[in-house]
Amino acid sequence: MMNNKKLKKNHFLLLEIVMAIGLLIILTAGFFGGLKTLKRMDRSFNNERRALMVIDNTLERLQKKKHYDSAGVERIFNDEYAKAGFAPNSKIKSMIKEEPNQTVLAVLKPNSKPFIEVKIKVKSLQSTVNSKSGQDKPQTGEGLKK
């Protein structure tokens, strides 16, 4: 009888093996679920970084220009958006909205809320702004707002 008791203690029961495999499956599923979440977060952060770069590069290029109008702002913004390299299936969109005396630029998330939005004061090249000295001068890069 003693030999039978010793044999039972030296071997794993089927229930213990099944529970160990079940625990391993749960831990593996949690690990891969965490990896999927990290990948989604990384994609979101990369899209946000690219959106910020589009606006930043657009503003830098506009500051170098002496004169710009809404068509010039739109052309530069579209160029920078194209260079950003958003994945075609990412559903990230650009938005340009012209308002009186300003152009609104935005890069939109898939849910159509903006990552970033900026309003830029613009005038057509023929329009003028009164300066403090009373003389008229064309719109320059000083009208940029971040």
What order do the strands of the largest sheet run in, or round the barrel if closed? Answer: 1-2-3
Largest sheet: 3 strands, antiparallel
Number of helices: 3
Please count the beta strands (DSSP E, at least 2 residues each).
Answer: 5
Alpha carbon gyration radius = 30 Å
Can you put this structure into words, describing what you see?
The chain is α+β, with helices and mostly antiparallel strands and 146 residues long. Helices cover 51% and strands 18% of the residues. It has helices at 2-10, 14-64, 70-83; strands at residues 93-99, 102-108, 114-121, 129-130, 136-137. The strands form 2 sheets. The protein has a 3-stranded antiparallel beta sheet with strand order 1-2-3, covered by helices on one side. It has a two-stranded antiparallel ribbon with strand order 4-5. α2 (14-64) packs antiparallel against α3 (70-83).
What key phrases describe this protein's structure?
146 residues, alpha+beta, three-stranded antiparallel β-sheet, two-stranded antiparallel sheet
List the helices and strands and how they pair.
Elements: H1 2-10, H2 14-64, H3 70-83, E1 93-99, E2 102-108, E3 114-121, E4 129-130, E5 136-137
Antiparallel strand pairs: 1-2, 2-3, 4-5
Helix pairs in contact: 2-3
In summary, what is this structure?
This protein is α+β, with helices and mostly antiparallel strands and 146 residues long. It is built from 3 helices and 5 strands; from the N terminus they run αααβββββ. The strands form 2 sheets. It has a 3-stranded antiparallel beta sheet, with helices on one face. Strands 4-5 form a two-stranded antiparallel sheet.
